[in-house]
Every structure is written in C-alpha cells, then in structure tokens.
Amino acid sequence: MKVSFFGAADEVGRSCIMISTDKTKILLDAGVKLGSTEEYPIIDDDQLKHVDGIFISHAHLDHSGYLPHIYTAGYRGDTFATKPTIELTNVLLGDYIRISNPANISKEGMGELSRHFKIIEYNKPFLFRDLTIKFQPAGHILGSALISISDGKSKVVYTGDINLMKTRLLEGADLKNLEADTLITESTYGADKDSFPRTHDTEQKLLKSINETLKTGGKVMVPSFAVGRAQEVLFIFDDYMNSGVLHKVPLYIDGMISKALRIHRHNVIYCREELQKRILMSDYDPFKSPNFTIVETKSQRNRIVAGSESSIIVTTSGMLSGGPIMFYLSKLANGPDNKMIMVGYQASGTLGRAMQEGAKTININGADIPARLQVETYHLSAHADRAQLESIPAKIRGVKNIFVVHGEHEKAEQLKAALSRKYNAVVPKLGETFSI
C-alpha cells in the first residue's frame, strides 16, 4: 500500500490524500484552500482518471470543495460519505460556486457529482475492491468521520478533522476498536501551546464580553462557519438567553446558517442522544428557537446596521473571505462600541487572521475602512487541541508510523516532535509518496 499527499501537507487546506494498492486507487478528501488566492490539490486531471473511489471525511470546503472539478474533469466513479455530509456538502458547494464562480467547474460536473454520491453508515465495514473501509464518528461536525482502510496486510486510520470532546451537538470522536499500522492525523492545533481552556470557562468569558458590548448599545458580530461552529454558537446563545445570563436582544442569523440548521434538525439522529431526547420529550426545539431571527433580505440587513438597538449577528463566512459578514463589517467596523467575536480557525492570509492580529484598516470591495471595533477570539473549536492530538495514537492498537497533516508548518512540526518520542512521525511535503 502507498500513500500520496496532494494537499494539506505542511499546510491547512485542500486536503487530498491518495491510498493506492496494485489494484485500487482511492482519494481521502478532495478540498480547496481558501484565502487571498484559491489553491487546489496538486493531483493532475490525468491522475484523476485512474481514481476508483473518493471518500469524504466531512463537508467543509477544505475537504470537499474540489469534488466538482474532479467530475468536471471526467471522473465518473462514486464519492462516499455519510448522509449528513452529503447534504451539507451540497449546500456548501452551491454557495461556494455562486460566490467564487470558479472556472474549473461546469454544471455537468456538478450534476455528475450529485448522481455519484453514495451514503456510508458509521461502524459498518464494507469491501471496496481489495480494500475494507469503515467510517466512525470524528466528533468534528455533523456527519464527520474518521476513516480506516485495510488491504489485508496494511491498515491505515485517517482522522480527517477530529474532536475528542463532546459538544452541545455531538459526542466526541469514537476511537473504539481501531487498529492501524499507520495513522494520518490532523494538526490544526498541534503546537506546544495549543491548550484549550474548559468550555464552561470560555463560555462565561464570552458571555461577559458580549453583555458588556450590549450594555453600551453596541452590536456584536460573530463570523462563523455555516456548518458546525454556527450551530454550537447559536445553541450557547439560546441556552443563556433563556436562562437570563445573556441579555435578550435580537439574535440575527444570516447566510447559509439557516439551511445548515434545517439539515441538522433533519439529521438529529446523528447528534448527541441528550439533544434527541430534549426535542422528543419537550415542546422546545432548539433548532427553531424563538430567539432566532433569520435575515432573508438586503433591506433587513440595512435596518439591522442602521438601527440604534443592540443586537447579535451570527453570519458567514468564518474567515471573512466573503458572504454577508463583509456587508456588516463595511457598516460596523468603524464603530468602537461594536465587537467582533472570532470562534473558529483563521487561516494565514485571510482577512480574519489579519483582524485577529490587530489590523487597523481593512479593505472591502476596494474601499479602505478603519477597523475601530473590538476584536476578540474565543476557542469554541471543533478541532482537537494538542493534548487530545497527542493522546490519539495510544488509543489505536498497533500504530507505528504517523503522518502529521492539516497544520501550519510550526504546529505540525511541534506535534511531530512530540509524537516522535514514541512513533515514527513525519510531516509530509506536497507531492510526496510513501510505502506503508
């Protein structure tokens, strides 16, 4: 068995890894790298013609966004994912294509992708040519999976993006009964100092900060990924508004978040059992909270920014790379009473990272705008932190070799150094192939 890295090697984004035997070639994920410029996996179209199957760990575009191009290039094999991942991927891809209008995607390619999606259930091994493949919950977002692959001689486990801690929506990753010679692990938060505080402590600090802004009449913007972070954030705000801890102000939801909420509700069987029981055994459905106001028109947006009342706006995109957040920023960034709360990863080269690092001026649609609002970051991450990442190999029987991927250079290298004390750990480079 061989493993080749066409993306997410010494970087975050464009995840795309090939597992190959003498008989079979599969891709684990097929993402794009979004930032100041878009980057794609370095696999060429001729190589794609020899791929037998594609397996998607979860819906985020850095793991799924290259799929339309693959089918546009002529691939006609199947793409396998869980039911929620397929539904969420369709929504995210539709929005990505509408906003970015990438030249390497055709309507025919999108149509072929839709026809070739195949549902995979968790914890049900199946034979794909000469490979046995199994999906298990990864705890990252709805439908996310870690993927195990075996050819009868070698065994590989790919974490995708992983979170071991339970959240309001999901249980932590299921690592039971896993066995592998080789582990391919993410390292988004793999640096020595990447230690997340207790969720409760983070939430209390977040709520205190938001209440301070609301008291002064300011508006709070929370840019968020439409899938995963947004739902967690909304559930936090909803719970604390209902308990009186968070001031009850208009809570606006803009962008694709409302579509993603509906998909979560339709797939609640994939969420935590406590959440399922909460919906079934009471009259209160947190996915349809009366605290939420869906923004559906431009005139609504104009009224929100022009109004004098305090409010909370949860909207896309999470890294400020497009979407409704750009409108709100253009109108509210110059207000020192306003606040922007970062709740997710901000990739290098994005406006989100620049503002996180203290940018005083931002450019939106060619106009320079003073950034006088307050910017704060709270780790409500759907990723494992350093301690969790270090613990994963010991939970998988037989691990000897580890490939550290999906992390900025320093973070990946620091995690590799820690893992190298017990395992043969490598940070692969783009285009490298290894025999395993």
Protein model, in words:
The protein is an alpha/beta fold and 436 residues long. The chain folds into two domains: 246 residues, Ribonuclease Z/Hydroxyacylglutathione hydrolase-like (Metallo-beta-lactamase, Chain A), CATH 3.60.15; 179 residues, Rossmann fold. 30% of the residues lie in helices and 21% in strands. It has 14 helices and 22 strands. Helix 4 runs antiparallel to helix 8. The model has no long low-confidence stretch (mean pLDDT 94).
Named at the architecture level, the CATH assignment of the largest domain is 4-Layer Sandwich
Helix content: 25-40%
Q: Work out the strand percent.
A: 15-25%
Q: What is the alpha-carbon Rg in Å?
A: 21 Å
Shape: globular
Give the CA-CA distance, first to last residue: 6 Å
Structural class: alpha/beta
Query: What is the class of the largest domain in the CATH system?
Result: Alpha Beta
Strand order of the largest sheet: 6-5-4-3-2-1-22
By CATH, the superfamily of the largest domain comes out as Ribonuclease Z/Hydroxyacylglutathione hydrolase-like
Largest sheet: 7 strands, mixed
Q: How many β strands by DSSP?
A: 22
Q: Low-confidence parts, pLDDT < 50 over ≥5 residues?
A: none
Indicate how many domains the architecture comprises.
2
Provide the residue-averaged pLDDT: 94
Total helices: the number is 14
CATH fold descriptor of the largest domain = Metallo-beta-lactamase, Chain A
